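Thread title: Can someone regenerate the structure for this chain?

I was given the following input by a collaborator and told the matching C-alpha cells would be attached. They weren't. Posting the sequence so someone can regenerate them.
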Amino acid sequence: MTTNTPSITSAGTTVGAQTAAPTRKVVLITGASSGIGLATAEMLAADGHFVVLGARRKDRLDELVTRITAAGGQASATTLDVTDPTAVEAFVAAAVSVHGRIDVMVNNAGVMPLSKLEARKINEWDRMIDVNIRGLLHGISAALPVMQGQGFGQFITTASIGAHQVSPTAAVYCATKYAAWAITEGLRQEVGETIRVTTISPGVTESELAESISDPAGRAEMLAYRARSIPASAVASAIAYAIGQPREVDVSEIIIRPTAQK
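Best answer:
Regenerated them for you:
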C-alpha cells in the first residue's frame, strides 16, 4: 500500500444516541486509476478528505497518490480487483484498521466492451456482469456492516445514462447499469434511515471505457457517439456535491450529461 499520512484524526461526534458523520471524510474509491475515479480522487483530496484508492493498475495508482500528496492532499492506494469479494473485503478492512471508520464508499469500477448481441461476445458480457454488477455488490457487502456499526456512511454508485435508455451495441452494458441503479435504489430504501445512498448516472464522459471495445462496429459507433463529451471532472463535481450535503440530506440520484446529448 502507498500512503503518506496513516490516519485521520477528526472523528465523528456524539449527538444523542447517534454518531454524527465527520466533515473530513475517509472516502474509498474503486476504479480510481483513470477517468471518473481518478478525477473524483483528486477533487475530494483537494477538498480535504482522505481518499483510499483501489484499481487493478497499481503503477497508475502510485502516480495518482504522488500527485495528490504533492498538492497537499492525503491518499493511499492498493491493487484491487472488484470481481474478487475477498479482495474487496480486505480493501475495506484495511481502511477501517488504519482510520477507524469509512465515511463514503464510491463503487465506481466499470467496463464497457460494447457490441451487438449478434456478435455473441459472451466473454465480454460476462466481464461486464462481473465488474459492473458483482463488483458493486462486493463493495456493498464489504462496507455495509461497517457503516451500520458506526451509525452513518454513504454509498455512491457510478451508474450511467445507460441505466435509463438503451442504444444499439449497448444492450448488455445498459442492462448491467440498470441493475446497478436498481441495486443502489434498493439499498437506499433498506438503509436510508442512517446511511445515505446516491446514484450518479453520467452521460457521455471523457474516459478510457471506449478503448475496451473489441467489436469494430461497436467501436466505430461509440467513437462517433462520444464526439461530444463532458470531462470526468464534471462527474467528480456531482459526486463531491452529494458527499458535501448535510447528513439529513440524501441526494438520491444525479443524471449529468453533455447539453447536446439526447
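The longest strand covers residues 196-202.
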